[in-house]
Amino acid sequence: MGKIKIENFYGSDLTNDPSNVSPSRSPECPNMIRTTAGKVGKRPGYATVKTFEAQGDGKINGVHFYQGTTTHKLTHTGTNLYLDDETLLYSNMADDFSISHQLAGRLIIQDGKAMLSYDGSTVVLVSETAYIPTIIIAGTPTGGGVTLEPRNYLQPKVKYRAAGTTGTTIFQLPDSELDATTVLIKTLNANGTFTDLTENTDFTVNRTTGQVTFTSAPGESPIVGEDNVYFTYAKTISGYADRINKTNIGILYGLRGARDRLFVAGSLPNVDYYCQMNDPTYWGEYWYSVIGQDSAKIMGYSIIADRLATHKDYGENDTNIYLRRGTLVENETAFLMDGAFQGSGVLSRMSMANLENEPLFVSTDKTINAVTPSDVLGERYAQQRSYYLNGALDKEDLTNAYACTWNQFYLLAVGERVYILDGTQFFTERNTPFSHRQYAGFYWTNINARVMWTEDDELYFGTSTGEIKKFYDGTLRSHYRDDGAAIECYWDTVMDTGENFAMKKTYVYVALRLGAFTSTGVKIYGKIKGIWNLLRDYTAEANYFDFNDVDFNDLSFSTDTTPRTIGQKIKIKNVDKAQFRFENSRLDQPFELYESYVEFIQSGYYRK
């Protein structure tokens, strides 16, 4: 008598041939998920909670949260941005993915078109409120001075301070070819106050040469050692603002790992930028880094220990992840290169998410990778984590794959499917000797998520047609439906050939241990000679009675809420192999597998 016993269910194996899959994994198990260690069940369903139908709405491109005295939710759909799904805040966004980070009381939103800022009440272009730097102090009427602050990429305006001299009425600004924006000048008084002057009344400006002529000389400073003439003017440098506005990648990072600066990329292939500490309105023209060659684009960031890792889209000489560390150089903050990782590049910029403490991303070889130091010589590599899903991932278009993490799962939305890695269950896989571990994998169907996020620990997704959908928490039977439709869910065993593939088998018994619910059931199928045959349909055997949840179609008076064993004799005669399916695709029914058991008899050698 032979037996096949499965005590632990460790997700799917979509990579190996069904005949080579481990018995604890399934070659097909749609819409199942780990419930407890080694046990699986049907995923909860979802319901549509909001549909955007106004003109300009369409794809859900991002959902962002502002944390203040109250939490505000901003939804980017099509080209519009809504507050709490109702109030239109802004209507000129890019119809593409957007990301956000909160810094110094502002939520900064990047969509590749214009950098936006939300302060809890209004949305503005960051460029409209950007910091105006004082570029030079201690200037003279003929020019020169001491450099103080770099220009702001986002702000064409600058400030310049000079000390006047007796009788001098002409001052040379640091720039020529000025913008038409009104020039502002104020002069210092002896009591420390200022007098504002008016262009074309108190002075004139030659914008071509950058020369200012006063109707009467400002004179020497009334306070020794202080500048007494303060200029504010605008000088647009072509392309400067776009370097920041057209970014669509970002992360918070800073000196000694502090999250007090925003790093952004995406406007140029291999250049990124960072803002002033705790001031996302100030992007100094020297605060940038060139990362590798321009033949490979920056695709995203992650934090590894106290280092900033910058990911590119393919490996340059096998290097695709560059490390930087913040440090002080002559009392100035600098972010210097501090090593690199080897491995595949990033294929989708929206696929980057941290599972526990491990940064994960979809790589250019269409696998899910992690960045981690190797145990060998302390070298750093990008290591594969998705071996059991790779067979399916390889067939997908992963260019716009979108990831989030939830309840110790990494979820990757791809078309109508979501691929899942379970951070609590991992294994050593001999087929990936250079990776420390592979996570258990699952997949869900009929999702059609464009973006995914968590909100109050609950999982949501947005579609490409403007719907917001929320997954139920699974506490009620009515939570096991997708917008009213039943969820197809089953676990296929591996193709079993017994102890000797050449001998005839007769399968005589099958049993399951199921989680008990107020309404559940299972259909048991056997695959014989390539055809699935229904062996038994259990409808109420694992049910228990609950006054709060009565279904007269599956009524049970049992009060036993512990897992139930069900089993029956079967007869599948004279075959060389067989496969079994345990299915529950009924509306409003949870389903959980604890163990399975099959008995068979071997007798004689198989001849056909």
Q: What would you note in describing this structure?
A:
- This protein has about 600 residues and is mainly β.
- It contains 2 helices and 47 strands.
Q: How does the SSE layout of this entry go?
A:
Blueprint: E1 2-6, E2 32-34, E3 40-42, E4 46-51, E5 60-67, E6 71-77, E7 80-83, E8 87-90, E9 99-103, E10 106-110, E11 116-118, E12 123-125, E13 134-139, E14 146-147, E15 157-162, E16 170-172, E17 184-188, E18 194-197, E19 203-206, E20 211-214, E21 229-234, H1 240-245, E22 249-253, E23 261-268, E24 271-274, E25 288-290, E26 298-304, E27 307-316, E28 319-329, E29 332-342, E30 353-355, E31 358-362, E32 368-373, E33 380-384, H2 390-393, E34 402-406, E35 409-414, E36 417-427, E37 438-444, E38 451-455, E39 458-462, E40 467-471, E41 490-492, E42 503-514, E43 522-528, E44 531-538, E45 564-575, E46 579-583, E47 592-605
Parallel strand pairs: 13-15
Antiparallel strand pairs: 1-47, 2-3, 3-47, 4-40, 5-6, 6-7, 7-8, 9-10, 10-11, 11-12, 13-14, 15-21, 16-20, 17-18, 17-21, 19-20, 22-23, 23-24, 24-25, 26-27, 27-28, 28-29, 30-31, 31-32, 32-33, 34-35, 35-36, 36-37, 38-39, 39-40, 41-46, 42-45, 42-47, 43-44, 43-46
